[in-house]
Amino acid sequence: MKTTVRTVGQVSVIDLSGKITIGEGDIVLRDKVQELLDGGHKKVLLNLESVSYMDSAGIGELVACFKRAREKGGTVKLLRPSGKVEDLLQLTKLWEVFEIFSEEAQAVASF
Amino acid sequence: MKTTVRTVGQVSVIDLSGKITIGEGDIVLRDKVQELLDGGHKKVLLNLESVSYMDSAGIGELVACFKRAREKGGTVKLLRPSGKVEDLLQLTKLWEVFEIFSEEAQAVASF
Amino acid sequence: MKLVFGSDVRLVDVAHAASEKLAGVAGFDEDDALNVGIAVREAVINAIAHGNKMDPKRRVEVVLKARPRSLEARVRDQGTGFDPSATKDPTAAANVLNTSGRGLLLIRAFVDTVDFKFREGRGMEVVLVKKRTPRGTLKDDSSSARP
Amino acid sequence: MKLVFGSDVRLVDVAHAASEKLAGVAGFDEDDALNVGIAVREAVINAIAHGNKMDPKRRVEVVLKARPRSLEARVRDQGTGFDPSATKDPTAAANVLNTSGRGLLLIRAFVDTVDFKFREGRGMEVVLVKKRTPRGTLKDDSSSARP
Ligand SMILES: Nc1ncnc2c1ncn2[C@@H]1O[C@H](COP(=O)(O)OP(=O)(O)O)[C@@H](O)[C@H]1O
Ligand SMILES: Nc1ncnc2c1ncn2[C@@H]1O[C@H](COP(=O)(O)OP(=O)(O)O)[C@@H](O)[C@H]1O
């Protein structure tokens, strides 16, 4: 998985591409979000548009990031989950846990 | 492998995409070229731009097409072989057998 | 096709790739082939992590069989088995924020049937079957009446 | 990792996919992983076609081993073997228009070493080794003096 981090206003947007899976994508995701939280950036938007799929380890890490942000008084929200990723969020009922947006501007404004 | 056939002047251009490999791409290639030859279309340009690689069976079929066309008084020429496909044509010395072009207009004019 | 490998988590990707590709050559469309790949991936993760407890010397076996109308994947480990009915529902309100426990949910969602077999001394075997919906071969299907 | 399968030509794609993926997780870059995949593909085609003469009951075994600095692939069939030095050079003028005979050429081009072993009753084994050029780990390499 590849990531780039952008700052839009007060929000850190992580553009993810590839898959969030055990032993690779999940670790990258954890490290990137941890870096932001450690740097005091507590408003994190994960852009999932180019993520093709996740496995249970990747989904678990998504939840872990959500909880770690919350513990620090921050939030992790999701942008544009695609076909399979959307299916997985629905299946796991995480669709109701995360705030999920299809427009970046709207997502950024919501923090 | 996917193919589409276009007619440019007197030349039949087959746009190939995918890989030319045993049991699938090689058969598609054979059938498409045979169809054209059977229909009296003897000037065939294979556009390899979107072919990612070939195996020995695919390369063998390329040669078979070349020979079948020649037997019918026709020609098969190649357009824009990419990285791995170019390597393979060099390695097998078929680079010197086929007429190979990087510009479609030039290729079409050469028949 | 049979795959045999030690309990190295990097090999999960290889088992996934092989299963997805086999589903593709067996005639499943791209999305269903990915579903097969993900289901096998999850079963292999469980075999490595829970069954074999990450011991690289313990082996995982994946046996893939393409049938005319289905694909079967058997994933075996060398562990002591478990009771699948005793696992928690990861979608229940109390569990939805757990960071694990979703593998079986994904497996069940992505294939049509899942069987669990445990035999003493032979470890756990999880049997996944994905049915293939015939495309454009309605004739073949005329015997099974449709509503 | 070991793959075992019957001599079905559709499984060539699966063996290729597994080998390419394993090379990727073992640290080869995309292009070299594809080279490993193609080399294994060709060895498997030969095992199925020449070694096992397309008999679906005869098996092919592919054993893949990722080492720190190389990847080894052993491709075994149940055939009667052959003498690789007796094969024609497919790049010679007299052969360049042949429609077959290029498999060994591709294998030799895409991996670093190729060994052929035949043992009576055990069939042919072709051993491919691809070396991994370390990326950005020059320190590791300091012992092997470079010109
Ligand atoms: N092959 C296996 N061997 C032993 N226990 C298993 C196996 N597969 C699953 N389990 C048990 O079932 C539980 C639920 O598995 P799963 O839904 O895949 O979630 P997770 O693996 O994230 O815990 C596991 O925590 C484990 O206790
Ligand atoms: N595993 C094998 N068992 C028996 N003969 C083989 C095997 N691999 C290769 N050969 C022999 O070597 C020849 C050259 O092989 P190759 O270069 O791969 O080209 P091709 O397979 O197209 O003939 C084959 O025609 C065959 O006679």
Features:
heterotetramer, A: 111 residues, alpha/beta, 4 helices, 5 strands, 32% strand, C: 147 residues, 3 helices, globular, disordered C terminus, binds adenosine-5'-diphosphate
Spatial shape of chain A: globular
Estimate what percentage of residues of chain A fall within beta strands: 25-35%
Structural class of chain C: alpha+beta
| Oligomeric description of these chains | heterotetramer
N-to-C order of helices and strands of chain A: EEHEHEHEH
Write out the strand line-up for the largest beta sheet of chain C, numbering strands in chain order.
1-2-3-5-4
User: How far apart, in Å, are the first and last alpha carbons of chain C?
Assistant: 37 Å
Low-confidence stretches of chain A: none
- What is the strand tally of chain A? 5
| E-strand count of chain C | 5
Biggest interface, CB < 8 A: B-D, 23 and 23 residues
Classify the beta-strand content of chain C into a percent band: 15-25%
Taking all Cα atoms into account, the compactness measure Rg of chain C is 16 Å
N- to C-terminal separation of chain A? 26 Å
Which percent range fits the helix content of chain A? 40-55%
Structural class designation of chain A: alpha/beta
The arrangement of helices and strands of chain C along the chain is EHHEEHEE
State mean pLDDT of chain A (0 to 100 scale). 97
Mean pLDDT of chain C: 92
Q: What does the model show?
A:
The complex is a heterotetramer, with 2 copies of chain A (111 residues) and 2 copies of chain C (147 residues). Chain A is an alpha/beta fold and 111 residues long. Helices cover 41% and strands 32% of the residues of chain A. Chain A has 4 helices and 5 strands. A 5-stranded mixed beta sheet of chain A has the order 1-2-3-4-5. In chain A, helix 2 (56-71) links the parallel strand 3 (43-54) and strand 4. With 147 residues, chain C is of the alpha+beta class. Chain C has helices at 11-25, 30-51, 103-110, and strands at residues 2-6, 59-66, 70-76, 113-119, 123-131. Chain C has a 5-stranded antiparallel beta sheet with strand order 1-2-3-5-4, covered by helices on one side. Chain C is globular. Chain C starts with a strand and ends in a 16-residue tail after the last strand. The relative contact order of chain C is 0.18. Chain B binds chain D through residues 21-23, 53, 55-57, 59-61, 63-64, 66-67, 83-84, 88, 91-94, 96-97, and chain D through 9-10, 12-13, 31, 34, 38, 41-42, 45, 90-91, 96-103, 105-106, 109. One adenosine-5'-diphosphate binds at residues 46-47, 50-51, 77, 79, 82, 87, 100-104, 124 of chain C.
